[in-house]
Amino acid sequence: KNKQIFAMKKMSKCKIIDKRSEHSIKAERDLLSVMNHPFIINMHFSFQDAEFLYIAMDLLTGGDLRYQIFKQKIFFEDQTKFFISCIILSLEYINTNNILHRDLKPENLVMDSEGYLKLTDFGIAKIYRKENNKDTSGTPGYMAPEVMNAQNHTIAVDYFALGVIGYELMMKKRPYLGKNRKEIKEKIMSYQVQVKKNMVPQGWSVESADFINRLLQRKPANRLGLRGPTEVKEHLWFKGYDWKNLYLGKIKAPFLPKKGDNFDFHYCNAAEKMGPETEERYRLIKGSQKFKEGFIGFYYFNRYSNKNTNKNNKEGNEKENTEFKNPHLEYLKEEEILM
């Protein structure tokens, strides 16, 4: 009604049940229903029909960081620093609220038209608990060693992934490479990657290398970020950085995505092909009780209204009135005082 354009995530119920992803889909929807921050991709509505689930979210037209890495090939230090600072603000928001993203990677960082990165995909995000050694999902290459080794872990896992992204932008490759999770794990356990002074690319500072090295520490006890995002922001690389104006969107991004050239529409719009075995499996799933009743309460309408139009979703009504703490509200208050 307000003519706003959204991005829509459309998910097949059959495929979700077939992959046993019901819990992660519901968990993502529940988290998104209580989160609202300018450095994450926010949900505005969720609904369903007979065969699909839908989530309407912020539309960002700059493409994801992986796509831009593929197109751009080389990023300079100031551009990388800006990307990293955007990610830090998103992590500060979720970590303050006791959430571990656990799948931080370039594919889950989407750029708006002004060059600002926003965090998305909370499908395997978890509320922190001390005993979480069984939570071993993630993307090989960005997973912290403690997750790969099925050990208890903290928000430090997100900062290890941040280090991998920083290394990738600086060195044009990931620090630990392998064909599969097993190979990558073996590499991580055999040696500690470090950006040495003679490896620092021309035009990059030693502070940038030190920042990345401290994030990539294999032992969480030695890793920057273990004690929270404040110590990450206080690193020398960010000395004097204007976090307030970054949050307010007043810093001009050093990299701007090209207009109209930020998505591979061949893959975005490609119809999914199914073989006869999959079709038969989906046919059986459609007749199951789980298909009929497994997604009750998925509805969520208009996060900015006190009324939830889905009267049957009592849980949704309770969650809608709950907002996460925003550690950056002080920047807005300062702005109001100046005005």
Strand elements, count? 7
Strand content: 5-15%
Uncertain runs are 304-321
Largest sheet: 3 strands, antiparallel
- For the termini, the CA-CA separation is 32 Å
Shape: globular
User: What is the oligomeric state here?
Assistant: single chain
Characterise this structure.
The chain is mainly alpha-helical and 339 residues long. Helix content is 39%, strand content 9%. Helix 4 packs antiparallel against helix 6 (156-171) and helix 6 (156-171) crosses helix 8. It is globular.
Task: Note the main attributes of this structure.
single chain, 339 residues, mainly alpha, three-stranded antiparallel β-sheet, two-stranded antiparallel ribbon, globular
In brief, what are we looking at here?
The chain contains 15 helices and seven strands.
Topology (elements, then pairings):
Blueprint: E1 6-12, H1 13-18, H2 22-32, E2 43-48, E3 52-58, H3 65-72, H4 77-96, E4 99-100, E5 109-111, E6 117-119, E7 126-127, H5 145-148, H6 156-171, H7 181-190, H8 206-215, H9 229-233, H10 243-247, H11 265-268, H12 276-286, H13 289-293, H14 314-320, H15 329-338
Antiparallel strand pairs: 1-3, 2-3, 4-7, 5-6
